[in-house]
Every structure is written in structure tokens, then in C-alpha cells.
Amino acid sequence: MFHVERYMDTRARASAPQAIEPASRTSVREVPRPKIIALANQKGGVGKTTTAINLAVGIALAGKRCLLVDLDPQANASSGLGIAIKRRGGSHFALISPDSTEQAIVPTMIDGLDILPSHPSLVQLERELQGTSDRERRLQMALIPVSTRYQYILIDCPPSLGLFPANAFLCCDSVLIPIQCEYYAMEGLAQILADVEKSKRMNSCLRVEGVLLTMFEPESVFAHEVADEVRTHLGELVYDSIVPRDVALAEAPSHGKAILQYAPRSRGARGYVELTRELLMRQNSNHLPEETKANDEA
Ligand code: ATP
Ligand code: MG
User: Fold this and answer.
1) Phi, psi at 211, each rounded to 5°
2) Alpha helices, DSSP H, located in the chain
3) Which residues are CB-neighbours of 276 under 8 A, at least 6 positions away?
4) Looking at the predicted structure, is the pLDDT value of residue 80 above 80?
5) Is the dihedral of CA 206, 207, 210, 214 positive or negative?
6) Which of 39, 46, 49 best tests ligand 1's pocket when mutated (most atoms within 8 Å of CB)?
7) If exposure means fewest CB atoms within 10 Å of the residue's CB, which of 73, 75, 143, 209 is most exposed?
8) Å from CA of 289 to ligand 2 middle
9) Is residue 45 in contact with ligand 1, taking CB distance under 6 Å?
10) Using CA atoms, how far apart are residues 110 and 293, in angstroms rounded to an integer?
């Protein structure tokens, strides 16, 4: 929170006229803004939802208030956290009317973590929104009423490059792209990187948070080769943390639990603890402007 606010303050100051700088600095500080991260990859089954759930839980356990937005009609992030998908509501209502967001948010079993659940009715809503002029700004509008309540907002996107990922890219700060450690790992990556680039026209602050290697099998020589190749191509964009393949990660959602609740000593849990640490560390240091880093150290 502390660092995110400062970051926002610095960004706002960069474009503020000098004469009114003191007033605008004060007002920007008074309006804390969450860090918004979208989990996206149009390729299916690469670990977007597993990462969204377990990273959100990790962030909340690190003491930061977090909202998980389920933007996928499959509603896997919702059911994976034990939220019953009984009737339309959640992100469906919030996308129709920002006045509904507050009521549509549901607390989870984890302290500090709330969720805006999904429902299969989002499929129909996506069709209905196609005819509206502000169709790509719906999520941005939906999050405004609740944004001061959270330090982090994670958005679990569906496996497409359709309207919902477009909504996420328009309002988020960065996109975390999980890819599976397999032969086709790089397939589609160029496409989503291009899509992020294209979305910068409407959201100039947007950047790639990183690429996350998932379902890694340490005993497989081939998996190591894939990981090496991805790192060779993408360099620092690739997170150091790697999520291993672990059956406990596949079992946990069927119990409506995150891995840290279901099997806290598993290697899958260790993978997500490492990822949470790395992400929070990158937020606090690597991607802050030099001036802000100096302030933090003072
Ligand atoms: P979709 O594109 O359909 O939304 P996704 O990218 O969100 O899929 P997940 O649902 O997170 O992917 O994962 C796909 C499947 O793989 C799920 O059954 C999940 O439980 C399992 N899974 C994810 N990560 C791991 C892992 N590290 N080890 C073992 N199983 C995993
Ligand atoms: Mg998913």
C-alpha cells in the first residue's frame, strides 16, 4: 500500500503542472489506488486461475487487502475458493452497473481477501455488451466504487482475447502471463504480448508484469529445456519463481481451498509462496521509478 501510493503519487506528479504541484500531491495521496494485475493468456489450461487464486491468497496472507475478480464464465476462481455459483450476480451485475459492485463482492475464508464471483451468464452478457459504446470500459467503471478498499486487485481472465480480457487490459497496471512448461509453451505468447502492446493505446500505463512458468516437472530434462528456451527468448520478463506440477494444486479447488489451506507443506504451496514474495518484491523495487526508490530508502 505504502509503495503503491507513492508510485501513483510519482506518476501523477510527472504530468502535473509545477504551479499546482503541492495541492495535487496532497489530493493524490489522499486517494489510495490499488495495484491491478490481470492474469491472462488466450491459451486454455495454462494455470491462470490456479495462479489467480493462490497469488490472491498469498497477497492477503502477506497483510495486503486483495480483491479477486472472476471474469471467466467458467467461474473456476469462484468455485476454487469455495464460493457457490448459484445465480447470476457478482461480476455480471458489476459490469452492468457500477452501483452493484459493492453488494456483488463476497468475502472469502481468507482474512483480507474478497472476491467478485462469476457466473456462466457472463457468456450472454458478453454478447449483449457488444452493441454498447463503452463495452471495454465496463470493468474500469465497476471497480471505481471499491478501489480504495483494496491494495491489490487480481483479475482472472477467460482463455480468449475477447471483450473481458480487453476490459481487464484497459483498467489494469500490468498483465501476468502464465505459460505451461511444455512443447507449445511459446505458442500464443507473441499474440498476447502484441495484444498488451495494442491495449497501451487506451491504457498508456499498461505493462507486462511478467511471464510465469507453470506445471514445471523438475525431474524432466525436457521441462528444463523449455524453461531455458523461454528465458533465452524473454530474459528478465520471466519470473524467477516457477510453479511445479503438483497434484495437490489440482485437488485443492475441488475442496474449495487454496493450496496454502489444503496442503501448505506441498511443493505447489512453496511455489506460490515464492511467487507471492517475488511479485511483492518486484512491486516494491524493480519497477518503481528511481526517485521513488530513493525516497523509500531515506
Ligand atoms: P482456463 O484457460 O480454462 O481458464 P487456466 O489457464 O485458468 O484454464 P487452470 O484452471 O488454473 O488453468 O489449470 C488447468 C488445470 O490444471 C486445472 O485442472 C488445474 O487444477 C490444473 N493445474 C494448474 N496448475 C497446476 C500445477 N502446477 N500442477 C498440477 N495441476 C495444475
Ligand atoms: Mg481459468
Assistant:
1) -110, 130
2) 2-15, 21-30, 48-61, 76-80, 90-96, 101-104, 122-129, 138-143, 163-171, 189-199, 221-234, 247-251, 259-262, 267-284, 290-297
3) 55, 58, 59, 61, 62
4) yes
5) positive
6) 49
7) 73
8) 33
9) yes
10) 31
Q: Which three cell numbers stand for residue 206?
A: 499498461
Question: 191-206: buried (b, 16+ CB within 10 Å) or exposed (e) per residue?
Answer: ebbebbeebeeebeeb
- Ligand 1 centroid vs 180 CA: distance in angstroms? 9
Question: Is the pTM of the predicted complex or chain greater than 0.85?
Answer: yes
Return d(Cα 180, Cα 46) in angstroms, integer. 5
> Which residue's C-alpha cell is 489450461?
45
Q: What angle do CA 279, 284, 235 make, to 5 degrees?
A: 50
CA 132 to chain centre: 26
Residue-wise pLDDT tens digits, 51-67: 999 999 999 999 999 99
Average confidence score pLDDT of the chain: 87
CATH architecture of the domain 33-297 equals 3-Layer(aba) Sandwich (3.40)
